[in-house]
């Protein structure tokens, strides 16, 4: 009898308990979208589209303005280099020796009491 009890206990231990299989439920609840929700979704979509249009338009105008600013800066740099070149030419032409040479060529005489100092800009 003891032997039979041991066999019965061993059989119980060996057999794992099986869980009942869960079948997916076939009656799914379908969510209905009301007309109000449709209008809200439509309004949200229109707002998103309008905002993206405004953002893109603003960015393109900013890009155009930046491009114009860069073009103006390039022109300013060119003008500054031209001004520097012209100023160096003025400095060369205003040298005292050159002015004296041109004056002598034109037949002018140097009179020390009439000489005035002119400040250079």
Overall shape: it is: rod-shaped
- Look at the helices and sheets and give the structural class: mainly alpha
Sketch the topology as an H/E string, one letter per element.
Answer: HHH
Radius of gyration: 49 Å
Low confidence ranges: none
Family: Belongs to the FtsL family.
Function: Essential cell division protein.
Protein name: Cell division protein FtsL
Membrane topology: Single-pass type II membrane protein
What does this molecule look like?
The protein is mostly helical. The protein has helices at residues 2-14, 35-93, 96-105. It starts with a helix and ends in a 16-residue tail after the last helix. The model has no long low-confidence stretch (mean pLDDT 83).
Short description:
By secondary structure, the chain is mostly helical. It has three helices and no strands.
Write the layout of secondary structure elements.
Blueprint lengths: L1 H13 L20 H59 L2 H10 L16
Membrane topology: Single-pass type II membrane protein
InterPro entries: Cell_div_FtsL, FtsL/DivIC
Organism: Pallidibacillus pasinlerensis
Jot down its keywords.
121 residues; FtsL/DivIC; Cell_div_FtsL; cell division; 0% strand; transmembrane; rod-shaped; mainly alpha
